[in-house]
Amino acid sequence: LDVCKHFLLAFATLGVPRQIKTDNGPAYTSQQVLIFFQDWEICHITGIPHSSTGQVVVGRAHST
């Protein structure tokens, strides 16, 4: 899965995070990605569905 490959490249550069925050896009909520995060012991946090405020929280967390 392309998303997992991108995460692996990021891990190689930045290290493995304890948690990752994403939106609820299908690329981030698939079963394969869920298993990938479990295998790496990463807590996956998603935004609040259909809530622009919830997505802002995720976006701000990415910028810090």
From TrEMBL:
InterPro entries: Integrase_cat-core, RNaseH-like_sf, RNaseH_sf. PANTHER family: ENDOGENOUS RETROVIRUS GROUP K MEMBER POL PROTEIN, RNA-DIRECTED DNA POLYMERASE-RELATED. It comes from the Eukaryota. Keywords: Endonuclease, Hydrolase, Nuclease, Nucleotidyltransferase, RNA-directed DNA polymerase, Transferase. GO terms for molecular function: endonuclease activity; hydrolase activity; RNA stem-loop binding; RNA-directed DNA polymerase activity. The gene is Ervk10. Residues 1-64 form the Integrase catalytic domain. The lineage of its organism: Eukaryota, Metazoa, Chordata, Craniata, Vertebrata. This is POK10 protein. One of its GO terms (biological process) is DNA integration.
